[in-house]
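User: Can you write out an input/output pair for a complex, sequences first and structure second?

Assistant: Here is one pair. Inputs:
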Amino acid sequence: MKLICSKSNLLRGVNIVSKAVPTRTTMAILECILIDASTNEIKLMANDMELGIETRVEGEIAERGVIALDAKIFSEIVRKLPDSDVMIETDASFKTVISCEKAKFNIVGKSGDDFSYLPYIEKNDAIVISQFTLKEVIRQTIFSIADNDNNKLMTGELFEIIENELKVVSLDGHRISIRNIELKNNYENKKVVVPGKTLQEISKIVPGGVDDDVLIYLTDNHIVFEFDTTTVVSRLIEGEYFRIDQMLSSAYETKVIVNKKELLDCIDRATLLVKEGDKKPIIMNITDGSMELKINSFIGSMNEDIDIEKEGKDILIGFNPKFFIDALRVIDEENVSLYMVNPKAPCFIKDDEGKFIYLILPVNFNNAAN
Amino acid sequence: MKLICSKSNLLRGVNIVSKAVPTRTTMAILECILIDASTNEIKLMANDMELGIETRVEGEIAERGVIALDAKIFSEIVRKLPDSDVMIETDASFKTVISCEKAKFNIVGKSGDDFSYLPYIEKNDAIVISQFTLKEVIRQTIFSIADNDNNKLMTGELFEIIENELKVVSLDGHRISIRNIELKNNYENKKVVVPGKTLQEISKIVPGGVDDDVLIYLTDNHIVFEFDTTTVVSRLIEGEYFRIDQMLSSAYETKVIVNKKELLDCIDRATLLVKEGDKKPIIMNITDGSMELKINSFIGSMNEDIDIEKEGKDILIGFNPKFFIDALRVIDEENVSLYMVNPKAPCFIKDDEGKFIYLILPVNFNNAAN
């Protein structure tokens, strides 16, 4: 194999496919990036068997061939080359010479024969969504997936297509995040659970242009994302996702409208009194026109009043402050509405248009101590 | 005690004195920042018994007093307060209320009685140096102090005053870094060894203006730095520093002039083939008009040619690449001159004006294998 491409193109490609290189594996071939120049295109590929990424790199093929190179070494070499044309040459024993200007690296690659190519996916109707929207919807929901494997379904996100709507849901047993996106077209109804890791990596490699699209294909076992010259294929998580509709009641006893930044800053300040693992709730004492926030810990106490608009009953309710912070951080609105029923029922943060719902369970607290 | 000052002033002061708070200590009082408003000034102080920092903060004292507050908690509270006036109030049982706008923190402080105030230093003739120059000279030498305590003197830097010159030296047994600074005035000759940690912290808190000065006072046991409203007092390292003059010969057999950036980039590229702890040298093969750099490791090999100007003999010599990278990074000149005698004698990187000398010992290498 012998090929020439610019350092910048090569680096862009390497950075993209590296996201599918596993950090730990017993199979050395999975630690490699495959350079496939066996046809008239240069393709880079990596695959950890759950997530596979393939991207096309502009360049010139002087001699066709395939080589697998250790991802870490190869990407470090590419990163440190001068900003010029790079030549990659291999021989029959997989010796590889990477040269750029006067610099010349010799490393030994592996045969591409053992490499697991991306699975072939029968492509049906493509769901079209802007790169910007996809990145946003991931950012706005990914924080509430479960951080352990106890329940596999909780480590993923529900992607549900209902006609011209995409509903994305994540939950971890203490909270639920829901975002609804309007699509340009109508599609067949479909529900899949996408691994959280796939979504995290996708949101790192999608450039995120408002006018650039991502095509999404769904099958029973896989989800495929196509954008620019890149294809990402991921396995889905098997199983029936949680039924959340029954948890979403619209009845409430107290409605609060509050400035988002003020509430976020205040809770953020309060949490500095809470050490990791020390589950101290933030207490909200909601009365007409005012919300008093209080926190009490071994370190000290903090309280602050915030101006609010209130409808309905007064309420005294406690929350894990982190859950509130996570949700408020991804809401772009200046003011948010909180809906509560009683100190043991979930609080909803939602907008009037139904674009988002964040459900947070309250925590018990010893009222006397606060 | 009761005082009021702006959040920004308070934060600036807290950030400065925090540098003298030890990360680990068995004495709880050392983990505190002392707020001393016992006179008509607000002073913040921290002291780890080696390094002590005191800074004055603008503000209003409504009631005089002193309090010691846990540095970590106090600085986090200050950092997260709204950008407004902060009031700090304490009572006789050291209960402390920190309030700002509607936010109110309650924490418990400690009596200032147990706090170790900065030692009183008899101030003699002040050595005047610009903040910029002090920061630069630290950056240009600090990398070659020893990173372990085997020889205490190697963990510090020599500050030597010779009439109107400040010579700063650091060495770790494999290399020596020397910077000579011209001072505006003449001073009495004096040699002290300043702990590396003190210099690292100083360079973080000195703003670094070209037109702003630092006053340095030297005694037998202490060095004092005064700038803006801050005073830093540090113990010195005891003992006679190494005699380096006998190592600095000006005879050479080979002189090389090379573009600094080209050489640095090339060595930097080569090091990616060297894993931590794997002591592979970079080999320089210096001939007329050209320097070939080669490195060979378990991962692979790399070679690159660089154009040079050469005087004297050809030479084949090997170095620890990190030592070359460290020195080249802090040299601002476009071209550097290397002086060598033979493959077992130190290489000098120095300028014609005697502003800097970097001495690097070569390493043995198996020529046949390279």
